[in-house]
Amino acid sequence: MVREFRAQKLRMALTVLAITWGTISITLLMAFSVGIERQMHKASSGMGQGIIVLWAGQTTMPFQGLPQGRRIMFRPEDQDLIKARVAGVDKISGEYMRWGVTIEYGKKQVSKLVSGVYPDFGEMRSHYPQPGGRFIDQFDFDSKRRAIFLGWKVAEEIFGTVDPVGKMVMVNGIPFTVVGVMVKKMQDSSYHGPDEDYGVIPASTFVGIFGDPYFDNFIYSVKPGVNTKTVEQDLFRVFGSKYRFDPKDTHALWFWDTVEQAEVTRKVFLGIKIFMWFIGGMTLVIAGVGVANIMYVAIRERTREIGTKMALGARKGHIILQFMTEAMFIALFGGFLGILFSLAITRAFWLIPMEGAMEFLGRPLVNWPVAIITVITLSTIGFLSGFFPARKAASINPVEALRYE
Amino acid sequence: MNNNGHLISMKNVTKVYKTGKIHVDALRGVDLDIGRGEFVAIIGPSGSGKSTLMNIMGCLDMPTTGEYHLDGRPVANMGIHQLSSIRNKKIGFIFQNFNLLAYATTFENVELPLIFAGKPGAYRKQRVMECLENVGLANWAEHKPTELSGGQMQRAAVARALANEPDIILADEPTGNLDSKSGGEIIDLFEQLNELGRSVVTITHDMNIAHRCHRIIRIMDGLIESEKHNGNGRDKNLTQD
């Protein structure tokens, strides 16, 4: 059997190449598609997963004798009000902000944004601590501890290679203990600049130092299965009755619904994915035509050989069995090489640091069903396009096959 | 059985080739008997139908009409597998252009009919070497056909034809692509085979070769034009025409 390959070296190599190449193209296309999708998902969840940002606005409608154009401001007690009156809200944290806060360690001094938040903020906003540290907890909050959680970029700027956890920093001249540093994350959206570049302290401590009477915004998540729009209507109703504005006054409260946004992103990516499947399908057709062409020509050229073998007493079964073994070998070998190369190439991409464009390309991941379906499809095409001519050559009178030039 | 014990018995065999609207009468009613142990030359100009006759004899092609009995059995009734089996075991075919598989060694080429016959490996090995020794190619077993001379290639083909110990050797211009010395060696081989009792039928253009056979059949325009016995044949079984 292997003997036959020697004669057909070039053609066999070409068929193997066609199957290998087809498998690589489609497998890689799909592998990158998976990588990009995961990366997009990661980036879009960088600011937080399933959260809504709520700002107070300005009224645009006169209400109960009050004029339009009144500013609405959230007070600290509003957090409990929402918890008590809006059933759909799961976690919630008011947020105070102050820009241009001085943070210093040793001789290093930087000017950054500092937010005052509640313990639930950390999880909602994907503020995960690096090993050895933690986020602001309930104890920090209750006892108004001077604890600060730093973005990794701030930490790097002022600490360099020193481990910041447990160290003392001066925040506007007041000593704070660094309780944790944020793990690096991708973030493609934000409402106050990237999270890497600011510090977070307990809201209670914040009020004690800066004395802010109003939240800048709320961050909240909704309970599973609850429609974010329903919660928005509830909030308009609750705040409308408290601050006396028309619940239909859409400018009184502002929402940034990342749940809704994630849904849009998902649909966009679904479009990209359909496009990639389409390209993949087209590539498969082209590869299939290539394989069919080579196999078909190979068998036609071998008709004389089939004639000789028939003259020597080969039965139809001998010819077809030989062909089938060959086709199987080529298909499996080509498919094996294709998958092997695909794995190697995707592995190689894993070694490239996740920086710049790579951050959006992500880590390609071989989609096994796609790889296997590709190999099977190409093998079947190669098999059929060789099988029928071979069977035909074995079915005619040997003399006709022998005469074939 | 109406073959009078002949190995090959043809009655009014015709062959018409149809290519589109053109009909070519390659054979127009051939009656021919060849007995066991005969050494027969078929001669005739190009296009006279001698190759067609030989292909039908070798079960590589089927007659359009007429009867052909091979070793007493009507070929027309045989299925595709039976024909394969006949070609494999009863007939040894030798071609003008050798038709050796270029990528296989001499050994592997000679082994093919034994593989098709389903013979076990150990037997194949022994039998192939026997055949190669018979044709003087024992030392060339592991060489490819491309490394052999024309005469050696044809001797390899003879060894291949002999592998399954067929009743009859059919050779279609076996010396056509050889120089006269190599050609002579092939005919020497045929003579030896014939002396051992095997029937040999060969097509040839070369009258020197034809005269070494015991019986010369001349084909012209799809019919047997004349027959001549050289008188030194082992089998004097004559045909009726």
Describe this structure in a few short sentences.
The complex is a heterodimer of chains A (405) and B (241). Chain A is of the alpha+beta class and 405 residues long.
3D architecture notes:
- The complex is a heterodimer of chains A (405) and B (241).
- Chain A is of the alpha+beta class and 405 residues long.
- Chain A folds into 2 domains: 2-44 and 262-403, no CATH class; 51-258, no CATH class.
- Chain A has helices at 2-7, 9-44, 78-85, 121-124, 138-142, 152-159, 203-210, 228-243, 258-301, 303-311, 316-351, 358-361, 368-395, 398-403; strands at residues 51-56, 89-105, 108-117, 147-150, 168-171, 174-181, 198-202, 217-222, 253-257.
- In chain A, helix 2 (9-44) packs antiparallel against helix 9, helix 2 packs parallel to helix 11 (316-351) and helix 11 runs antiparallel to helix 13.
- The longest helix of chain A is centred in the C-terminal third of the chain and has 44 residues, at 258-301.
- The model of chain A has no long low-confidence stretch (mean pLDDT 87).
- Chain B starts with 7 loop residues before the first strand and ends in a 12-residue tail after the last strand.
List the helices and strands and how they pair.
The complex is a heterodimer of chains A (405) and B (241).
Chain A: H1 2-7, H2 9-44, E1 51-56, H3 78-85, E2 89-105, E3 108-117, H4 121-124, H5 138-142, E4 147-150, H6 152-159, E5 168-171, E6 174-181, E7 198-202, H7 203-210, E8 217-222, H8 228-243, E9 253-257, H9 258-301, H10 303-311, H11 316-351, H12 358-361, H13 368-395, H14 398-403
Parallel strand pairs in A: 3-7, 4-6
Antiparallel strand pairs in A: 1-8, 1-9, 2-3, 2-5, 2-8, 4-7, 5-6
Helix pairs in contact in A: 2-9, 2-11, 2-13, 9-13, 11-13
Chain B: E1 8-19, E2 22-34, E3 39-43, H1 50-57, E4 65-70, E5 73-74, H2 80-89, E6 91-94, H3 106-116, H4 121-134, H5 150-162, E7 168-172, H6 180-195, E8 199-203, H7 207-210, E9 215-220, E10 223-229
Parallel strand pairs in B: 3-8, 3-9, 6-7, 7-8
Antiparallel strand pairs in B: 1-2, 1-4, 4-5, 9-10
Helix pairs in contact in B: 3-4, 3-5, 4-5, 5-6
